[in-house]
Amino acid sequence: MKGTKKLAWLGLLLVLPVLAQATTVTYSALTVRELGNFLMNLPTGFYAIAPAAAKNMMDTVDVFILDVREPNEFAGERIQGAVNIPIRDLPKRVGELPKGKPIIVYCKVGHRGSMAMMFLRGQGYNVQSISGGLDGWKNAGLPVVK
């Protein structure tokens, strides 16, 4: 439990800069408390999904694919069907995401994707982050659009 608390605090420190950039959104004490509760109770695997499992899910279920990298990274290569919302814009654009379907999020290596996943989970979204991000996806031999 002690390691989980340290990890939860680390996660909160990683998410706070994203939340702080949201100039048009105000977060209540309840939202902050709920985010803290969420981080304290992260399950094993932390809602990560292996690239092959993500691809299988994309092929069999209607999912929303979210790329949280910068637009220039997205323009270079991406997963087919992904929508680009840079992580710095996510708090003010969260309303663009569907609540009724699973979301698979990714970035380059997994850090921004994990932060986005934690933020979105705290907002009530059903979201998983691709382990290893786009690099993990490509290392698994899965296709990208260039």
TrEMBL record:
It comes from the Bacteria. InterPro entries: GlpE_sulfurtransferase, Rhodanese-like_dom, Rhodanese-like_dom_sf. Residues 1-22 form the signal peptide. Keywords: Signal. Residues 59-146 form the Rhodanese domain. This is Rhodanese-like domain-containing protein. It comes from Thermus antranikianii.
